[in-house]
Amino acid sequence: MATIKIDDIAAQAGVCKATVSRTLRNPDIVSPETRNKVMSVVDRLGYTPNRLGASLRQGSSHTIVVILPDITNPFFSPIVREIERVAIARGYSVLLGDTLDDPALERAFAKMVRSRQADGIIISSQRLPYDIDEQTQLALQLPPLVSIAEVVPTEGVHKVVVDNQEVGRTATRHLLELGHTRIAAIAGPTELRSSIDRLAGYRAALTEADITVDEKLICYGDYSSESGVEGTRQLMQHKQRPSAIFCLGDSVAIGALHILRELGYRVPEDISVIGVDGVAPAKYSAPPLTTVAQPMEQIGKISMETLLALIEGRKPEKTLNILPHELVVRGSTGPAPRE
Q1: DSSP 3-state of 46
Q2: How high is the pLDDT of residue 134?
Q3: Residue percentage of the chain with pLDDT more than 90
Q4: What is the pTM of this model?
Q5: Which SS3 state, helix, strand or coil, does residue 291 take?
Q6: What domains sit in the chain, N to C, each tagged with a CATH number?
Q7: Using an 8 Å Cβ cutoff, are 228 and 260 in contact?
Q8: Which of 62, 143, 178, 186 could pair with 113 in a Cys bridge, judged by C-beta atoms 3.0 to 4.6 Å apart?
Q9: Which of the two residues, 97 and 38, has the higher pLDDT score?
Q10: How far apart are the C-alpha atoms of 234 and 224, rounded to whole Å?
Q11: Of the candidates 233, 239, 204, which has an alpha carbon nearest to the alpha carbon of residue 219?
């Protein structure tokens, strides 16, 4: 069977070769009528684009790499879904790299861009997966790269984030407004910026309310449900127990709700629980979890649009995108119990 070429598709569709190429690479910039005409010929002839050959000729693979520390975390699902939606509409494929928070794996996936197997990177990590020279302009050293969630601190890297200090302040103020004064916190790893900033917001809100921060009411974990179970168990052993717990992640809060039920506490009658993120399982917990939600779909959309601009040599509107968070009040928070 003869090899089918773009020339054959162009001839049968009655368009030029450039139009066929645009339809295959960037279908959103071609009119629906032309796109349907070209794709019907493509389907009939059984044509499959040679992505690798095109990448070698054009220096573009039309593939992007999304590097995440844990793909089982429900926080990332809406983000990745939106990244893929935007990418596919622009003719790009998405490769998902689960690093298990391993710096070596981050660098391994990042090498794909250097070898032209991918055109750009979206990464959730505080570590930049490349060595840089501080004396050289950053843009000359890095491929197209966007940092999300746990962002790299390097100045000049494009970032899509929320204000985690304000997230912590919002959660704590909600509990204060319900009359709680003995508010505990279950944080994430001590070295993670998101945990540091959310705790700073928690401390600031308590200080603004003239409440002394009790360090014994702060536990540290790893953002998992298991750390929520263990942290809550420790907190409820205090002689003066908290009347509310601020969990710095929804998975932590789901673990906290589980152990509180096992210990015989009623939520929110005996103790209130609030989380952060707005993951889908939170609204189905028992009771449904009050949370400070991040705009996960927007994080995915804006990070992919920013990356595409960098890949295509356009200047993104912003280097730092700080997106709004939202307090979502459900059944796990209520008025402080009477003494």
Answers
A1: coil
A2: 83
A3: 76
A4: 0.82
A5: strand
A6: 6-49 (1.10.260.40), 60-162+296-323 (3.40.50.2300), 164-295 (3.40.50.2300)
A7: no
A8: 143
A9: 97
A10: 16
A11: 233
